[in-house]
Amino acid sequence: QVRLVESGGGLVQPGGSLRLSCAASGSTKHFNASSMMWYRQAPGKERELVAIISESGGNTDYLDSVKGRFTISRDNAKKTIALQMDHLKLEDTGLYYCRAGWGDYWGQGTQVTVSS
C-alpha cells in the first residue's frame, strides 16, 4: 500500500506563486524507478495531467498551458515530488493531485485557488 500526501495549496492572487509538495510513504520500493505526476481538476472539468517527471528527474513534460510557469522536481532520497507554480493565472484554480507512476495510487489532493 502506498500513501501519497499533498500539501502547499492555498489562495493566491494572479501572478503569484505556490509550491506544492507530495510525500510518498508505505510501500515505496518502486518510487525511485518510476515516473511521478501532478494532475489537476477544475470545477466542472475533467482531471488533466499537468506535469510528469521521469524516475531520475532528468526528463519532464508539461501541459502546454503551464509550460514556462510550472516546474516539477523530485527528491528520491526523501520520496517526495514538488510542483513550483509561478505566474499563476485564474485558470490554474483546481484540486491538484499527486499520482504514482506505478499501480494506481493517488493523493487526496490539495486545493489551489487563484483569485483577486
Verbal overview:
- The protein is mostly beta strands and 116 residues long.
- The protein is 0% helix and 49% strand.
- The strands form 2 sheets. The protein has a 6-stranded mixed β-sheet with strand order 2-10-9-4-5-6, with no helix packed on it. A 4-stranded antiparallel β-sheet has the order 1-3-8-7, with no helix packed on it.
- The model has no long low-confidence stretch (mean pLDDT 96).
**Topology order in helix (H) and strand (E) letters:** EEEEEEEEEE
**Averaged pLDDT:** 96
> SS-based structural class?
mainly beta
- Overall geometry comes to globular
Provide the descriptors you would attach to this structure in a database record.
116 residues, globular, mainly beta, 0% helix, 10 strands
Please provide a brief summary of the model.
With 116 residues, the chain is mainly β. Helices cover 0% and strands 49% of the residues. The strands form two sheets. A six-stranded mixed β-sheet has the order 2-10-9-4-5-6, with no helix packed on it.
Any chance you could write out the topology, listing elements then pairs?
Layout: E1 2-7, E2 10-12, E3 18-26, E4 36-41, E5 48-53, E6 60-62, E7 70-75, E8 80-85, E9 94-100, E10 110-114
Parallel strand pairs: 2-10
Antiparallel strand pairs: 1-3, 3-8, 4-5, 4-9, 5-6, 7-8, 9-10
